[in-house]
Amino acid sequence: MLKSDIVKNRVALITGASRGIGKAIAEALAKDGIDIAGVDINIDELRPAMKTIEDTVGRKTAAIQADVGDSASIERAVEESIRVFGNISILVNNAGITRDNLILRMKDKEWDDVLRINLTGTFNCTKVVIKSMVKNRYGRIISIASIVGAMGNIGQANYAASKAGIIGFTKSIAREYANRGITANGIAPGFIETDMTKGLPEDVRNTLINQIPMGRLGTPEDVANVVRFLASDEAAYITGQVIHVNGGMYM
Ligand code: NAP
To answer: Domain 3-241 is in which class?
Structure first.
């Protein structure tokens, strides 16, 4: 496939695409004319999410079950995406989990699971997808970090470490592949209205909002809009950056 065709027939592989921020990213990129390979561990939610995009936006989609923390599972998912679409021009590393606890109470499993899914998951997906991007001499890698990776947060040492890791990882990939037409950038959302933050007690939520100059939590679309920009041709000269989307909470 010629590079011009890859730019024309853009395909995004998005992890954690069945709900929350990943789903909003899938919808936003589809509206920009991009086909979507949705990857999620939860296929029952992923299938209807992808079908809605096909029905409402009219782009081709695929729903592929995989665990980002398992390299063999991701290799199969990427093979399947390439079989369906022919190439992957955009990778959005979005799947992520929290297992909050104070460090003295944090179980090894809580640490391991968060690092495996958030950080190793980003490594697994990038390593496999970048092979075809190198061949095509074109690619956009966008990884969802977090404000917590920059600020730290009580009860989230595992999550903060995983997200800070994504930032260092992104800058290294950006340097390694800048001369192959591949950009790698991160987005660090603040607190966004999704299932991940739905369980916050009312008082914690209000305390958080008081720390946000814009006076509200963000929406999944606030994050998706930045992904759209970083995936576009207009962002061709931006690499190794982390864009904060947090209503001014961290500057
Ligand atoms: P979410 O609503 O919990 O959705 C996460 C999605 O990832 C779910 O569909 C989940 O599947 C999937 N997933 C979990 N583990 C997976 C695995 N091993 N392999 C493949 N898919 C997996 O989360 P969100 O709030 O949209 O967050 C998306 C990303 O933004 C995460 O990386 C998160 O850390 C980051 N972020 C979120 C916020 C926030 O305030 N919400 C702030 C900063 C950063 P299941 O349905 O099976 O769980």
So the answer is: alpha beta
Tell me the best of 23, 25, 40 to mutate to test the pocket of ligand 1, counting ligand atoms within 8 Å of each CB and taking the most: 40
When pLDDT is averaged across residues 160-172 and rounded to a whole number, the result is 99
Catalytic residue chosen out of the listed positions 138, 159, 237, 250: 159
The pLDDT value recorded for residue 196 is 84
Task: Kindly report, residue by residue over 73-105, the tens digit of the pLDDT.
Answer: 999 999 999 999 999 999 999 999 999 999 999
Tally of CB atoms within 10 A around 236 = 11
The domains of the chain are located at 3-241
pLDDT above 70: residue 214: yes
Q: Hey, what are 170's tokens?
A: 């992104």
The pLDDT tens digits for 169-192 are: 999 999 999 999 999 999 999 999
Counting from 1 in the atom list of ligand 1, the atom nearest the Cα of 21 is 26
